[in-house]
Amino acid sequence: MAELPRLISVREVGPRDGLQNEDPVPTSAKIELIDRLSATGVQRIEAVSFVRPDVIPQMADADEVWQRIKRADQVRYSALVPNARGAVRALDSGLAELEAVVSASDTHNRKNVNRSTAQSLDEIAEIIQLAHDKGVSCQVIVSTAWGCPYEGDVPVDRVVAVASRAIADGADSVSFGDTTGMATPGRVQRLVGEFRSAQPDAALNLHFHNTRGTGLANVLAALEMGVADFDASVGGLGGCPYAPGATGNIATEELVHMVEDMGVATGIDLDALIDAAADAERIIGRVLPSQVLRAGPRSRVVPV
Ligand code: ZN
Question: What is the SS3 assignment for the chain?
Fold first, then answer.
C-alpha cells in the first residue's frame, strides 16, 4: 500500500451542508451542535452559508448562529457564499474563511444559479478579491466534479480547467465536490492526478458523498495520492437532492474511525464525535446513515 499522510485535516460540514439539506431546525440546536463539534478536536468547521433566506430557509439565521457559537481557538470556521452579495454579508459578520462555489457542469450551474459556469467564475474572481481585500481566505468549491445529474459524466479536462481558472484568479485552495455520489476510486485518482499535473502547488480539499457506497473507498484512493484535506458530515447529515432518500455526505465518525486505525491522525476524539453524531440524530429526529454511530468503534466489546 502507498504511504499515506500521517495527519489529515477534516472539515466538518454537518452544520452547513448537512443541515441545509434537512428540514429546518431551531437556531439553538444549531449552536449546540457546532459547540459540541468545536470540542471534538476537529480542525475546520463549515459553520453557515450566507444565502437568500427566502430560497434557503435552513440558513436564514446564519448571522445569529455565527455570533452566538463559542468559537474555539484551534478551529477554523468558514462560510459558504453563493455570490458577491453573500460574500459581503459574510465579511461584515467577521468570517475569516469563505467558500465560493461553482459547478463544473454548465447545466447544473444554470439550474442552481441561473448562469453559466463561465459567468459564475467571473463573479468568483470578484468574491476572491473582496475576501483578500479584508485579509480573508477564499476556497473555490468545484461541484459536480465527478458527474452531473443532468449531463452525466463531466470530462476531467473541464473540471481541471474550471479549477485552474479559479486558481489563476487567486483562490487560496480548491475543493472538488462529488455532489452526485458518482465518484469511484479510479475516477478519484484520475482527477487528482490530472489536477496535480496542471496545478502542482495548489492546495486541494475533497468532498465525497456516500450515495452509492464508495465514499470511504474514494477517501482511501485520495489518501494514497497524498491528499490530506477532506470534508465530512457528522452522522452523515444531509441528503442527496437528486436521489430522494439516498445518503449524501460521508459521515465524519466513519472517516475518523477508518483513517485513525490506519495510522493517519485527525486530532479528533472519536468518542466525542460519536456523541455529537447522536446529538445530531436527536436534533434531526430521524435515523442518520452513519454506521459507526450505530455500531460504535471497532474497539467496543460486548459484556460477556
Ligand atoms: Zn455534500
Answer: CCCCCCECEEEECHHHHHHHCCCCCCHHHHHHHHHHHHCCCCCEEEEEECCCCCCCHHHCCHHHHHHHCCCCCCCEEEEEECCHHHHHHHHHCCCCEEEEEEECCHHHHHHHHCCCHHHHHHHHHHHHHHHHHCCCEEEEEEECCCCECCCECCCHHHHHHHHHHHHHCCCCEEEEECCCCCCCHHHHHHHHHHHHHHCCCCCEEEECECCCCCHHHHHHHHHCCCCCEEEEEHHHCCECCCCCCCECECEHHHHHHHHHHCCCECCCCHHHHHHHHHHHHHHHCCCCCCHHHHHCCCCCCCCC
- Give me the domains of the chain, ranges plus CATH numbers: 9-295 (3.20.20.70)
How confident is the model over 52-72, as pLDDT tens digits? 999 899 999 999 999 999 999
pLDDT tens, residue by residue, 16-40? 999 999 999 999 999 999 999 999 9
Ligand 1 center–CA 180 separation, angstroms = 9
Of the candidates 13, 102, 130, 240, the residue annotated as catalytic is 240
What spacing in Å lies between the alpha carbon of 248 and ligand 1's midpoint? 6
Q: What is the Å distance from ligand 1's center to 12 Cα?
A: 11
Is residue 240 flagged as an active site residue?
yes
Look up the pTM and report it. 0.97
Q: Could you give the CA distance from residue 250 to residue 53 in angstroms, rounded to a whole number?
A: 26
The pLDDT of residue 179 is 95
pLDDT band at 160 (very low <50, low <70, confident <90, very high): very high
The CA distance from 60 to 24, in Å, is 10
Dihedral angle over CA of 156, 158, 163, 168, nearest 10: 130
Q: Rounded CA gap, 284 and 28, in Å?
A: 13
pLDDT of residue 242: 78
